[in-house]
Amino acid sequence: SGSLEEKVNFSEEQEALVIKIFEIAPSAKKMFSFLRDSNVPVEQNPKLKTHAMSVFVMTCESAAQLRKFGKVTVRESNLKKLGSVHFKYGVVDEHFEVTKYALMETIKEAVPEMWSLEMKNAWGVAYDHLVAAIKKEMKPSS
Ligand code: HEM
């Protein structure tokens, strides 16, 4: 099947994800130090691409963990770090919502022939549980 090919195509689509977040929520740009201090256009910023990739990969991993263990099992120390970083930068519910929307739209555009309500729901569940796990750790780091 073409699944391997589709995976390669998807990683290219991460760029669209990145751009979309800032189209929907321009204020999010101020949060990223490397965007504030940079003249490089948003969509060409390699660090932002890395973040978009983290969101995508960790959502995939979350799906696998939910299936296997019935819960998100990001390593405790990683989760604590993730929580405190997002707390520190002032990430709020709306940002997670916008990011979810952008992630979904990007997948939909990347693999339109595979897109369905079931697929949307599956990604949504995986993403929501991951975010819930991060949010639980969103407090000042001690
Ligand atoms: C940093 C993942 C959602 C803004 C990070 C890092 C990871 C990550 C792995 C690097 C942490 C480190 O330094 O060790 C995720 C995941 C998300 C998510 C998995 C959702 C499931 C968001 C959202 C926003 C956001 C919604 C706001 C629009 C940031 C910022 C940083 C960061 C500002 C710090 C970047 C810097 O170093 O300047 N995130 N993130 N993240 N994330 Fe997220």
Overview of the molecule:
The chain is an all-alpha fold. It contains six helices and no strands. The protein starts with a helix and ends in a 6-residue tail after the last helix. The model is unreliable at 1-10 (pLDDT under 50). Residues 28, 31-34, 51, 54-55, 58, 81-82, 85-86, 89, 91, 95-96, 99, 130-131 line the site of protoporphyrin IX containing FE.
Short note summarizing the structure:
Helix content is 71%, strand content 0%.
Overall radius of gyration: 15 Å
Question: Structural class of the secondary structure composition?
Answer: mainly alpha
Bound molecules: protoporphyrin IX containing FE
Distance between the termini: 49 Å
Please, what is the oligomeric state? single chain
Number of strands: 0
The residue-averaged pLDDT reads 82
Succession of helices and strands: HHHHHH
Percent helix: over 70%
Q: Uncertain spans, ≥5 residues at pLDDT below 50?
A: 1-10
Largest sheet: none
Strand content: under 5%
Write the layout of secondary structure elements.
Elements: H1 3-24, H2 33-36, H3 46-69, H4 76-88, H5 93-110, H6 117-136
Helix pairs in contact: 1-3, 1-5, 3-6, 4-6, 5-6
The structure holds protoporphyrin IX containing FE (HEM).
Supply database-style keywords:
binds protoporphyrin IX containing FE, 0% strand, globular, 6 helices, single chain, mainly alpha, 142 residues
